[in-house]
Every structure is written in structure tokens, then in C-alpha cells.
Amino acid sequence: MNSKERVFRALRKRQGNPDRVPIQFDLCRQHIETFGKKLGIEPDYAFSYYEDLTYRISANEIRTKMGSDVVVAGGTVPAGYKPEPVSGDVTMNEFGMHMKPTSLYVEVVKCPLENLATVSELENYKFPDAYAPGRFEKAKRDIDRFGKEFFIIGDVEISLFEMAWHLTGLEKYMIGMMCDEPWLEPLNELVEDWSTGLALQLVRAGVDAIWFGEDLGSQTSTLISPEEWRVRFKPRHRRMIGKLKKENPDIIIIMHSDGAVAPLIDDFIELRVDVYNPVQPNVDGSDPQDLKDKYGDRICFFGGIDQQSLLPSGEIAAIRKEIKERIRILGKDRGYLLAPAHILQPDVSTDTIEAFIKAATESGSY
């Protein structure tokens, strides 16, 4: 059984059990370079339009050689585009965000719409073109290369709420919601059009799933009230998903949100979301048994392995125990794609990553 068939069966899109629970994982640049050297593979980077998504959609050959059943593809900067230098190591991306690299991520240190006050000012802002030439050349190459054997996810994270507030700054955006500023919904409209354009192109290129992403939660609650999300964002997700399902009725929809977002899972199901990710452990409402009992016959789960403390600890026995427990609970009667709840960072050793993959493949047999 190849990886594509394994994931389709695990996500209950084809009849019969897979031979084992499938796995997926993402690597930071340091791990990409390390494992690339170990495997003798030159890393193949896809430079995303939003810098922090780069490693999600890069190095698919390395990850599949390591054991991932999944390839992730997504939009990049347009052909010939280079970020504009600002000062020191700070550059400006095509949205006008000033981006500064850190040891883990690339931080937005200046937002292009931080002083936005009127709709007319927004109308003068040049939003990037989702259909710019070259944006999906790398994705199409990966789909052509890996699509027959591996399950292909099209990545469209930072889809609505998160992209919008990155353009204005979080504080300004939250105050804008509270005060119902006139520029707020026109800005959300621009972001919806952008994300819909990206997703439609990936569907047409042949991906098996679309991965939307909104970090809507903290460790203890949602960042905005469920009621506010339902008014401002749920109708937009409904439109986006409807357009994708019209393009391909069989496309699988994945919804990503870190944090304590269990109050929104019923809404995700109503929106025809097929898979909930990352099932972040150690936050309110994420007990695996409760999630499986309440939602397991209506939505699948993707993630679930603790990235905050367990994997960085390097305690192999505890990691193996958690993997077995997640498979026992979330993998029962199918419906589970096993993965760390976040990208594997430098605080997780290469030995631990290899042990995680070994344990996941050995423990997941049906």
C-alpha cells in the first residue's frame, strides 16, 4: 500500500483500513539541512509569499525519504521576485511587511497598514496578485513528482483572520473589530479573495487536500469570542470551501488552528471541514478521548503529538507511550493522521526525530 492510499483510507475517503496510521511532520531549516546531508539530498526550498510558511512547503524529497506519507505544496513568491532590503537583516515582502529573522521564525516588525484609518486608504494599498506568474511553479513540480505515490496537501495557511491582522498589527485589528471600523470588512474581503485564489489554483493543480490555517486560540481560550468568529469569519470560510467543493467535490478540507479552539469544532464540521489540525495537546478542550467520543464520527484528526515539552525532552519511552496512546484513541475506526502538533524545531534533537518516526511507523498497524 503506498502513502496516498494509506492516507485516503485513514481519512475515511476510501473503503477499508490502511495498513497503518499514516504520519506527517515538518522540519525547520536546521533539520532540513542536517537530514539533507545525512541522506545526500540537496534541500529543495520553496520560498513562500509569507516567510514562515517556507519550511512547510520545502524539502519534500527529504521528508518522504525519512518516512512522511504526505507532501505539502503551496504558493511562493512570483517568478523573479526578491524581498526588498530595509536595514540590517530586515527585508520587506510583497505585502509590504517588514520581516526580521529570529532563531525560530521571521517576525513582522512593521505592518504595511498599521496607520490605516479609512476605506479610501485601503483602496490605495496594492494587494499582491494571487495569480502572479510563477507562484505555483514549484508546487506543480512537486505534485507531478510525488502525486501518484504520496498524499498531496495544498497549504493556504494564514487564511483570513491571521493574514488580516498581520497587515495592520494585532492590537489595531482587534480594536478595529471592537469598534467595527469601516475598513475592517473591506480588508477581510481582500484577504478572502487572495486565499480563495491560492486555494483554487492548488485544487486545479491536483492536490488531494487544502490546508487552511488560522491560529485562533491561546493555551486557555479562543483569541476572539466564538460568536465574533461566527459573524465575521465563518461566512467567509463557507464561501471559500463552497468554491473549492464546486471545483472538485472530492477535495479534502483541513482546518488548522493552534490553541484552545474546541468551541469551534462543531462549526468546522458544519462548514464541511474534513480534518481538524493540529489537535494541540495540553490546552483546554483537547483531551483526545473526549474529542474522539464527541466528534470522531464526524471529523478526522491530524496532529496530536506534544511539541511544547514532550518532543523537546527527548524522553523516548514517554514519546513512544504518547504515540501508542494517540493511535489507540484517535486512530480507532480510522480518522487519524499522526503528526507533531507543530513544526519540529531545533529544540528537538535529530535522534529524537528519528525515534519519533520509528515509533510512529511501528506502532500504527491496524
Description:
The protein has 366 residues and is of the alpha/beta class. The protein has one domain (3-81, 114-363): TIM Barrel, CATH 3.20.20. It contains 15 helices and eleven strands. The protein has helices spanning 3-10, 29-39, 60-66, 119-123, 137-146, 161-168, 170-179, 184-205, 226-232, 234-247, 265-270, 288-295, 310-313, 316-330, 350-363; strands at 70-74, 84-87, 90-92, 98-101, 106-110, 151-157, 209-213, 252-256, 275-277, 300-305, 336-340. The strands form two sheets. The protein has a seven-stranded parallel β-sheet with strand order 1-6-7-8-9-10-11. Helix 11 (265-270) links the parallel strand 8 and strand 9. The protein is globular and about 60 Å long. The model has no long low-confidence stretch (mean pLDDT 97).
Short structural description:
With 366 residues, this protein is α/β, with parallel strands linked by helices.
Please name the defining characteristics of this protein:
4-stranded antiparallel beta sheet, globular, 366 residues, 15 helices, 7-stranded parallel beta sheet, TIM Barrel, alpha/beta, 11 strands, 14% strand
